[in-house]
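notes to self, project folder thing:

trying the whole complex as one job this time. last attempt i did each chain seperately and stitching them together was a nightmare. two parts in total, labels are on each line so i dont mix them up again. if this works i'll redo the older ones the same way
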Amino acid sequence: MHKKVTFGGFGFPLLLLLPQLAITLVFFIWPAAQALYQSVLRQDAFGLRTTFVGLNNFARLLSDSSYLGSFKVTMVFSASVTLAGLAIALLLAVMADRTIKGATGYKTLLIIPYAVAPAVAGVLWYFLFNPSIGILAYLVRGMGYAWNHQTSGTDAMILVIIASVWKQISYNFLFFLAGLQAIPKSLIEAAAIDGAGPWKRFTSIIFPLLSPTTFFLMVVNVVYSFFETFGVIHATTSGGPGQSTTILVYKVFTDGFVALNLGSSAAQSVILMLIVILLTAIQFRYIERRVQY
Amino acid sequence: MVENRPWLTFLQHFVLLCGVALVVFPIWIAFVASTHDGRSLVSGVIPLLPGDLFFENYRTLLSEGMAGSGGGPVWLMLFNSLVMALSIAVGKIAISLLSAFAVVYFRFPFRMFCFWIIFATLMLPVEVRILPTFEVVANLGMLNSYAGLSIPLIASATATFLFRQFFLTVPDELTEAARMDGAGPFRFFKDILVPLSRTNIAAIFVIMFIYGWNQYLWPLLVTTDESFYTIVMGIQRMVTVADSYPRWHLAMATTVLALLPPVIVVVVMQRLFVKGLVETEK
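result (full assembly):
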């Protein structure tokens, strides 16, 4: 899409672009290039000598059991957050889409978690599940399960999943609701006249028509669970106990800032960038396809 | 409503109430905990109704902070968060309005190249380039400063895109009329385009304010001086302390203070925000 009526000049538009281009180059492109560059170097233990090691950092990572373990943790975490988040939000959106009394009130309350920082969401649930004073930990104990996310990896994983899903419900809810409201009412009415009940209408009309929204949200949620959940994990479990909640982003942070293993951290950054680029590419392919409908 | 089914309406209310309970419960418990004293929280199960120490707890926290957590008084953290969120929101809107204007209303060499450079930032969230970005900011001497907290987060393609999409829908007749009346590009931008974008600017403002306020990793990296701590990153220290001393009431009061401003912004500007969010990302 282009404008037919434009202004002339060369210097003025560049001047307008300058602030954004400068910030982008200094804080985005240059650091990304640095990450690429450092990923093929290795520093010795004192940071005195740097040698070129080619793809050695990557090879090391791929044979490093703790990195592969972190990959597995990320997959489990990401899949759970995405699936649970989408399922709960879809259920709520379908219920809120039918006009009932008080719908606006429900919606207002349901969008609150969007405004809560991931780290804060983590702390809220951490408090509820605190083994000694948390009210939910108490209830779970009453059911005969000794909840302790400080010693049990599974419990810690469940805790960060719950907090991450909670934070993301509003976002998914709003998009599902927008998607549902874009479905023509006449289709639903026609199906109702033909004798299709609510469940039948959902499975054979509403859900298929909602699939573009669902797909879009899947990509967004995978990206969310890969990167933005850093706050949830850092503020609560700190990747532990052991490595049980160390997702890839968290590992980049600890290897780079705590263990000061620059080459390895840079190589991990590059792998993460590749994952983001892949996900973005998938998303754009799909958006292009949808535009032609 | 397609048909009248009483049991379905009942089910709807039931499911939505469960959803609302799920959403509100953690915040309610945090609020309740923040109104009791530290000892009554550790000595048994947490109460479900507020206690009577609301004013006392919040006053201690705002003026003195939490002893042993290594942070200053909480009002300073709130102030830092506010400065950071506002600079990010205002900065983003300013630079994206300008660059979207340049990309849409001018033809010049390398136009698409510039556009793609900006676009590339979509693929580089701060989390994947933590170390090198930190080094850049450290080399520029921007650690422990408001500039270091906000400027690196200002450039993002999302706002530029929204404004670009919106500018493309502004009728060409307006541009022609403005030109015929002798308005130059800057005059057109200032007197026609910006006033027309008011709703979009407001929507982006809400989204970016929340984005800025909720930053966690970035302030964690660039601040070592406690007078620049933001409230969202300060919480983590308090929780660590609260686990060993009975200070959960103060940690939870901080949590409530950290989530209140963005929640108020979202609820008050709900309609604008929802419209902006759904349109930006699609």
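what i see at first glance: Chain B touches chain A through 108 residues (CB under 8 Å).
need to look closer tmrw
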